[in-house]
4-aminobutyrate aminotransferase-like enzyme
Amino acid sequence: SDLPPETAALVARRQRSFGPTSVLFYDRPLHVVSADGVWLQEADGKRYLDVYNNVPSVGHCNPRVAAAVAKQVATLNIHTRYLYDVVHTYAERLLATFPEGLDKVAFTCTGSESNDLALRIATAATGKRGFVVTEMAYHGNTTAVTDVSPSSRPGQPLAPHVRAIPAPFGPGDVAGRFAADLEAAIADLEASGHGFAGLLVDTIFSSDGVAADPAGFLAPAVEATRRAGGLFIADEVQPGFGRTGAAMWGFQRHSVTPDVVTMGKPMGNGIPIGGVVARLDLMQRFAASVGYFNTFGGNPVASAAALAVLQEIEERGLVANAADVGGYMLARLKALGQRHGEIGEARGAGLYLGVEFVADGAPAPEIASYVINALRGRRILIGAAGRYGNVLKIRPPLIFERAHADMLVEALDDALASR
Ligand code: PMP
């Protein structure tokens, strides 16, 4: 191949050690050596604008997070069965961002563990095992969570206790259609004998291809969930921590209050930490049957990182920045859609945007993959999502600026013009 020798050697070593579980981006994988803010640096010195990674939400190698981690790791890092201060300061600061009632937290290490725990909480609370999710949902990698992640099981039948409904895309009565589909799925679960434990959705529907509008469309589905005795579990792994620009949590855009909220990814800016927030009565029902212990969940170093992330979001006004830069970028992308017929729609909220590509009125994943590679050639990293893989997924670090948005829009314009 024409890979640089160092990169080719790493690919070979990776294949020898990892075998088939190795998953890399691009035919010519990126060999990264350092990062800073919104930039990733390759071994050969090339610098890439990062429009893909929502984990380093307060910026790659954020100095405040790095300092907090360095100090804590040199002071105390231990499993989570002793008392230490930082996890409590963090828990209080985190819970203060939630609506009243959502006032108990359990820490984990990943979004998958958080969703796994949420499923167990819902089953303990309702005595039922059935869940409703969206058709292309991804909620994580444990056995139980893979069952509620249809995107991880392409072409396979759903698990018997799971029903998948179409994600809430327009046009028309998005809210009404979504609630009606949910009610039919609940009826089916009840008829099957599994019963209904809850609705689990990512409130920005990222793997379904980004569904954001109209804000509020979740409310009738949440009401239907409660009427049927189920819990509403908001997976905030993607939209949480300010990304949608409207508020700290994606569900707040829809003016609904979940029973259980799960989080991960950006929570520690790359240091593994996740969490589940729920009402006391739900935590009690779960804990009455089994306890929950997570060796590393919220350990001192993870807590110190997460606390620094929250301070950065709050003190640097990053929720407002997501609204400002995201709104600006969305307007520019919509304008681009006027000039490039391949753009079917530009949509999203804050710094979570999707650009849908179509050809002759049909989804065009080949244009999305062309664009992903063309942008990589223009030193921009980006990915795609959705049932057909035709939706460009824009979710850069929250410190993204208008000038960065300009770089992306202009490179996209150029890439589409030279296709
Ligand atoms: N939920 C959603 C919506 C996700 O996007 C992901 C990860 N892509 C997860 C859960 C799982 O998180 P993790 O990979 O940290 O286990």
About this structure: Residues 318-339 form the longest helix (22 residues). The mean pLDDT is 97. The radius of gyration is 21 Å. Residues 110-112, 115, 138-141, 202, 206, 235, 237-238, 264-265 surround 4'-deoxy-4'-aminopyridoxal-5'-phosphate (CB under 6 Å).
